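User: Hey, my collaborator sent me this sequence without any context and asked if I could get a structure. I don't really work with proteins. Can you help?
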Amino acid sequence: MRDKTHMEQVERWARYVKEHPTAWKKEHTQFINAVYEKAWDAMERLSQQPNGKAKIVALRELRKTKT
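Assistant: No problem. I've predicted the 3D structure and written it out in structure-token form, which is a compact way to encode the shape of the chain:
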């Protein structure tokens, strides 16, 4: 179970969304896009390493077995 601070953050976010019905969408989209961009950059860097492409394949296979 998550701790009290997590629930407080969820409540703050819910309050912000309610008080800023249009602004939160742009901010949230920017955040999600940044997460994907960081992940993409990490994969690009990994692919440049020795055996990087094989590691990426192994990571993808591992993900398949977890779902």
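In plain terms: The chain is about 85% helix and 0% strand. You can pass these tokens on to your collaborator as they are.
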